[in-house]
Write a structure and sequence with these properties.
Helix 6 crosses helix 13. The chain starts with a strand and ends with a helix. It has two domains: 112 residues, Metallocarboxypeptidase-like (Alpha-Beta Plaits, 2-Layer Sandwich); 318 residues, 3-Layer(aba) Sandwich (Aminopeptidase). It is α/β, with parallel strands linked by helices. The chain is globular and about 65 Å long. Strands 1-12-11-13-10-8-9-7-6 form a nine-stranded mixed beta sheet, sandwiched between helices. Its cofactor is Zn(2+). GO terms for molecular function: metallocarboxypeptidase activity; zinc ion binding. This is Carboxypeptidase A5.
Length: 437
């Protein structure tokens, strides 16, 4: 485990015509099921200083877009991962070499991993049909997850209910699972997964966690005590439109997956660390093709508005935990500035305890600290909004791995990832229970 001390730091046609043609070609290819990423590579670049970071940021502004940042330029101590289409490899590698930017190849051919993933999902689907069971060790489509939610709630109606908190941009239901032993206005814990649609490991971890709660209630003393006094809300698919789109695209391109003329660029990527960015400001971007795009206005996205309205109306949330991937980090506010929050030491100690509990499961190490000192200063982060709204225990996870597979984490790692994440979640929830406010 590695941490950040409180307040410290840690480790022919016009260009526009070409861009429009590229985007519409990609959308058409997706609709026809022809999207292919053969030869696309993920490169890892380590910038030595701010000047080199600036050179990497320049790549983000290229039109048409030539790279897809998986881990964007943050600080010299952190690696930058980017997917480069086969057609752009020669240009991008020459650019890096000409500026003295050292790089390595993390994934040699993305299509190979996608083919393996597709084959594993098909095999799992056949097995589930033949056994009428749900596999917690496989990735699932939106339809499969929503069907599982209905069955899950029916089977465990004594402790679980389903709440629709809104509709997505494309009018899909936004669903939340509520775990409660009864009563109203209990203090509550919020957990969301899948804000970034291609981070499939987060959805899978959330599903496993939901099942873990009902399985261990009455057996695990800590969990039982938590649920007797508090409610737990889990939003498994925070971005249903993007998640559905990543399955049609086999998830390699962008983060958000938003469609329509209003969101052409965002088909291929939307915002950075904190999910749908809530507020424009430092570290966010007005370019809809940018990974730090802040949206046209605060809480402009219906998915964000649904969360904000629900949490605000409830009025008694004591912890908020937003789960992302990848990088193996556990972070807390602030992201928008280096200013420490009032309970910085408590959050630091709690994060340390959580990653230690996580480490004991499978020996996976996590960095931890405030967002601004662990990654970079960026406005509009979900946990910043939560903290400023009075939710004292606000955390953001970045799950496995550190880049070997990146967003294409094999399904064989779902259960181990969920198991270790659960111990960290349990630690945070227990602390929240034992420190009422």
């Amino acid at each position: 485990m590695q941490g950040t001390p409180a307040g410290g730091t840690s480790p022919g046609p016009s260009p526009m015509d070409r861009q429009t043609l590229l985007v519409f070609s990609l959308i058409l290819a997706a609709a026809l099921g022809q999207m292919n990423f053969t030869g696309d590579q993920v490169l890892r670049v380590l910038a030595k200083d701010e000047k080199q970071l600036s050179l990497l940021r320049d790549l983000e502004g290229l039109k048409p877009q030539k790279v897809d940042f998986w881990r964007g330029p943050a600080r010299p101590s952190l690696p930058v991962d980017m997917r480069v289409p086969f057609s752009e490899l020669k240009y991008i590698k020459a650019y890096l070499e000409s500026h003295g930017l050292a790089y390595s190849i993390m994934i040699k051919d993305i299509q190979v991993l996608l083919d393996e993933e597709r084959e594993a999902m098909a095999k799992s689907r056949r097995l589930e049909r033949s056994t009428s069971s749900f596999s917690y060790s496989s990735y699932h489509t939106l339809e499969e997850i929503y069907s599982w939610i209905d069955n899950f709630v029916t089977e465990h109606s004594d402790i679980v209910s389903k709440i629709q908190i809104g509709n997505s941009f494309e009018n899909r239901s936004i669903l939340v699972l509520k775990f409660s032993t009864g009563g109203s206005r209990h203090p509550a814990i919020w957990i969301d997964t899948g804000i970034h649609s291609r981070e499939w490991i987060t959805h899978a971890t959330g599903i496993w966690t939901a099942n873990k709660i009902v399985s261990d209630y009455g057996k695990d003393r800590v969990l039982t005590d938590i649920l007797k006094a508090m409610d737990i809300f889990i939003e498994l698919v925070t971005n249903p439109d993007g998640f559905a789109f990543t399955h049609s695209m086999v998830r390699a391109p962008g983060k958000d997956g938003r469609r329509g003329s209003r969101h052409l660029c965002r088909t291929w990527g939307f915002d950075s660390l904190g999910g749908f960015i809530l507020l424009p400001g430092n570290g966010s971007n007005s370019n809809p093709c940018s990974e730090t795009y802040h949206g046209p206005s605060p809480q402009s996205e219906p998915e964000v508005a649904a969360i904000v309205n629900f949490i605000t109306a409830h009025g008694n949330f004591k912890a908020l935990i937003s789960i992302h991937s990848y990088s193996q980090m556990l972070m807390y506010p602030y992201g928008r500035s280096l200013e420490p929050v009032s309970n910085q030491r408590e959050l630091y100690d709690l994060a340390k305890d959580a990653v230690e509990a996580l480490y004991k499961v499978h020996g996976i190490e996590y960095f931890f600290g405030s967002i601004s000192t662990t990654l970079y200063v960026a406005s509009g982060i979900t946990v910043d909004w939560a903290y400023d709204s009075g939710i004292k225990y606000a955390f953001s996870f970045e799950l496995r791995d550190t880049g070997r597979y990146g967003f294409l984490l094999p399904a064989t790692q779902i259960i181990p990832t969920a198991q270790e994440t659960w111990m960290a979640l349990r630690t945070i929830m227990e602390h929240t229970l034992n420190h009422p406010y």
